[in-house]
C-alpha cells in the first residue's frame, strides 16, 4: 500500500518529503491543553491598603474591645445616620414603581438636572448635559482617568493621597507621578515639586480637596496657584471633591472649577460622605469646560465609557432630586459639628503625647498623625507601629505607608465620642510604654 506524501521546501533550498498519514497521526497526539491566564489588567491591579492590611498578621488584645479608626465608612458605628428626608425619598422612589428598569447610561435627565442645579454657580455654571451619573465617586474617578489618559501617559497624584488613584491608573497602563503635600503647611501642595513633574506625557493633575487622608482644606489663593500651574502647561484637572462643603467652622470650601477661567475641570463627587450613604453608590462627574477645550470628544468619550455598565442604581437616581433638595441644612451642620468635635478631641489629646505630631484638620473626616520614629526604636516602620498598637491596645489606625507617606498614621474621626476618647487614651498609653528619649535630645538638654 502506498502512502501519500508531499514536499515541503525549507529555506528555499532542498525539498523534504513528508508522509501525510504519519504527520496527521502525530498532530492528533498533540491534544490542546488548558492554559487560562489572568488578564494583564487584573495582574496590574494593586490596592496598597488591602495589600498592607491583609499582610498584617496580628490579633487584637483580647482583654480590650477593638476600636477601628481605620475605615472611611461613616455609617459603620450607627452614630451617623442619614437624614430622614433622604430615607423618605428612597421609599417614595421605590413605591412609585417608576425606577425598576434601565436608565440612560449617563443617568436620568431629571436626576442630572437636579445635580447641575445644586452645584451650578455664576463662576462655574452647569447644565444637565454637563453631568454624568456614576456608580459612586470611585467610578467617576475611573471614568475621568480613562477618558483623559492613554497607556504610557502619566497622571500627577498627591502624596499622601487616596490610594485608588494609583490603583486605577496602573491597571490601565498609565504611569503615576507623586507630588508632595507639605504637613508643615497644613498639607498644601508643594507647587514647585508639582510643576517639576509635568512633561509632554502628563494627561491630568488630580487635586483632592478636602483631602483624604489629610483632612486638609485648600484656601482660595492656594487653589488659584494650582490652577495657574495647570494653565501654564495646558493640563486638565481631575478634582476629587467627594468631601465638598465638609469643612469646619472658620474655614471655607472653594471648588476648583469656580476659580478656573481656562483650565478644564472634571469634578468628581457623590452622595457617599456628605449624605452619609456610601453603600448607595451614587456619584457624578461635573464637566467644567468654559473655553470649550474638551470640545465634544471628551463628552462623547464619557458617554461611551458610561455605556459599559449602564449607570448607577435607578432607584437612587429616582430619589436623587428629593435627596438633594429636601435635605435640611441642619443635617449637614450637625454632621460637621460632630466631626469637628471629634477632630478637636483627637488633636488635643495626641498633641500632648511625646513622639507624636498630629496635624490639625480643617474638614473631611480624617486626621494624620506623624510618628517621630527615632523615639520608638523598637519599631521598624509605621506599619510595625500600628500592628503593635492593635496587638497591645486593640486600636486600629491605618499606617500612612498605605498613602505613600511613611512614618504617619491616619485616624478616622467618625467613631462615637466615647470611643474616640478611649482610643486616644490607649494610644497615649502605648506611646508612653514604648517611647525612648533620643540620645541627641539628651545631649542638647545637657548643653
What does this structure look like?
The chain has 447 residues and is an alpha/beta fold. Helices cover 39% and strands 17% of the residues. It is built from 15 helices and 16 strands. It has helices spanning 20-29, 40-44, 48-55, 84-96, 109-119, 136-148, 164-171, 191-197, 220-232, 295-306, 314-326, 329-351, 382-393, 417-434, 439-446, and strands spanning 5-9, 15-19, 67-68, 131-134, 154-159, 175-182, 188-189, 202-208, 237-240, 265-270, 283-288, 356-359, 366-371, 395-396, 398-399, 408-412. A hairpin with a 6-residue loop joins strand 12 and strand 13 (366-371). The relative contact order is 0.15. Mean pLDDT is 93; it is low at 441-447.
Overview features:
globular, 39% helix, 8-stranded mixed beta sheet, disordered C terminus, 447 residues
What is the strand and helix layout of this fold?
Elements: E1 5-9, E2 15-19, H1 20-29, H2 40-44, H3 48-55, E3 67-68, H4 84-96, H5 109-119, E4 131-134, H6 136-148, E5 154-159, H7 164-171, E6 175-182, E7 188-189, H8 191-197, E8 202-208, H9 220-232, E9 237-240, E10 265-270, E11 283-288, H10 295-306, H11 314-326, H12 329-351, E12 356-359, E13 366-371, H13 382-393, E14 395-396, E15 398-399, E16 408-412, H14 417-434, H15 439-446
Parallel strand pairs: 3-14, 5-6, 5-8, 8-9, 9-10
Antiparallel strand pairs: 1-2, 4-11, 6-7, 10-11, 12-13, 13-16, 15-16
Helix pairs in contact: 4-11, 5-11, 6-7, 6-10, 12-14
Amino acid at each position: 500500500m502506498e502512502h501519500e506524501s508531499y514536499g515541503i521546501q525549507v529555506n528555499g533550498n532542498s525539498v523534504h518529503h513528508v508522509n501525510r498519514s504519519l504527520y496527521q497521526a502525530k498532530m492528533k497526539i498533540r491534544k490542546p491543553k488548558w492554559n487560562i491566564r489572568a488578564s494583564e489588567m487584573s495582574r496590574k491591579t494593586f490596592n496598597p491598603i488591602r495589600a498592607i492590611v491583609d499582610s498584617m498578621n496580628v490579633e487584637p488584645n483580647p482583654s480590650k474591645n477593638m476600636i477601628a479608626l481605620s475605615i472611611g465608612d461613616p455609617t459603620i458605628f450607627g452614630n451617623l445616620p442619614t437624614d430622614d428626608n433622604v430615607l423618605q425619598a428612597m421609599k417614595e422612589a421605590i413605591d412609585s414603581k417608576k425606577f425598576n428598569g434601565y436608565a440612560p447610561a449617563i443617568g436620568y435627565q431629571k436626576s442630572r438636572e437636579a445635580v447641575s442645579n445644586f452645584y451650578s454657580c455664576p463662576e462655574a455654571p452647569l447644565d444637565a448635559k454637563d453631568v454624568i451619573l456614576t456608580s459612586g465617586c470611585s467610578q467617576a474617578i475611573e471614568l475621568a482617568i480613562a477618558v483623559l489618559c492613554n497607556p504610557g501617559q502619566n497622571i500627577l497624584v498627591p502624596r499622601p493621597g487616596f490610594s485608588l488613584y494609583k490603583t486605577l491608573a496602573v491597571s490601565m497602563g498609565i504611569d503615576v507621578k507623586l507630588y508632595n503635600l507639605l504637613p508643615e503647611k497644613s498639607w498644601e501642595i508643594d507647587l514647585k515639586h508639582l510643576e517639576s513633574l509635568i512633561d509632554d506625557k502628563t494627561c491630568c493633575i488630580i487635586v483632592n480637596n478636602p483631602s483624604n487622608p489629610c483632612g486638609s482644606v485648600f484656601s482660595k489663593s492656594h487653589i488659584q496657584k494650582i490652577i495657574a500651574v495647570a494653565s501654564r502647561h495646558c493640563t486638565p484637572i481631575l478634582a476629587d471633591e467627594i468631601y465638598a462643603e465638609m469643612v469646619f467652622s472658620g474655614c471655607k470650601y472653594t471648588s476648583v472649577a469656580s476659580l478656573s477661567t481656562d483650565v478644564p475641570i472634571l469634578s468628581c463627587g457623590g452622595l457617599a460622605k456628605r449624605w452619609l450613604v456610601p453603600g448607595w453608590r451614587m456619584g457624578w462627574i461635573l464637566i467644567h469646560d468654559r473655553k470649550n477645550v474638551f470640545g465634544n470628544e471628551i463628552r462623547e468619550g464619557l458617554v461611551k465609557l458610561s455605556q459599559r455598565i449602564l449607570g448607577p442604581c435607578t432607584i437612587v437616581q429616582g430619589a436623587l432630586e428629593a435627596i438633594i433638595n429636601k435635605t435640611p441644612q441642619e443635617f449637614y451642620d450637625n454632621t460637621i459639628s460632630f466631626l469637628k468635635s471629634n477632630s478637636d478631641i483627637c488633636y488635643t489629646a495626641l498633641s500632648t503625647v511625646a513622639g507624636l505630631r498630629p496635624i490639625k484638620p480643617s474638614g473631611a473626616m480624617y486626621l494624620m498623625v506623624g510618628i517621630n520614629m527615632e523615639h520608638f526604636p523598637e519599631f521598624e516602620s509605621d506599619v510595625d507601629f500600628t500592628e503593635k498598637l492593635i496587638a497591645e491596645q486593640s486600636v486600629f489606625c491605618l499606617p500612612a505607608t498605605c498613602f505613600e507617606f511613611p512614618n504617619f498614621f491616619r485616624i478616622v474621626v467618625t467613631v462615637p465620642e466615647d470611643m474616640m476618647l478611649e482610643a486616644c487614651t490607649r494610644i497615649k498609653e502605648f506611646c508612653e510604654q514604648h517611647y525612648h528619649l533620643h540620645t541627641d535630645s539628651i545631649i542638647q538638654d545637657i548643653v
